[in-house]
Give the backbone structure.
Amino acid sequence: TPAEHKLVGSPDPARGRELLKSQRVQCLSCHKLDGQGGEVGPDFGSLAKQTPEELLESILEPSRRVDAKYQAYLLRSADGRAVSGLLVRKDAKETVLRDAQGKEQRFDAGDVELFQPARDSLMPAGLLADLTAQDAADVLAALRK
């Protein structure tokens, strides 16, 4: 019933930016905000044109729609190492992937046994699980500014 739902106050983009930068949600390990952060996912500044619904879907279901630029790949090397990451470079000499921590992994072309697109995004699902409705509204407002 409507009485069971907690009403959300006006979204506060400044508070949302602080949440995005916080260790609580750890978004900057993969995304850039104001020139800080990782280079695994899109820069938050590039998301301002997305609707709140699109942003929320991307956060709640990151594997539903993945921009080709952020497609993850799976690689298995001849020595049995398995790595997933973004494709940095693939040529006749080597394949380079950037893992979820932003570290580049290099493999000689002859050492690659398996190389294929991953089914899932590198962004884990359930990132909003520990946020209140107000926190989520603030984060969405920050991403749209």
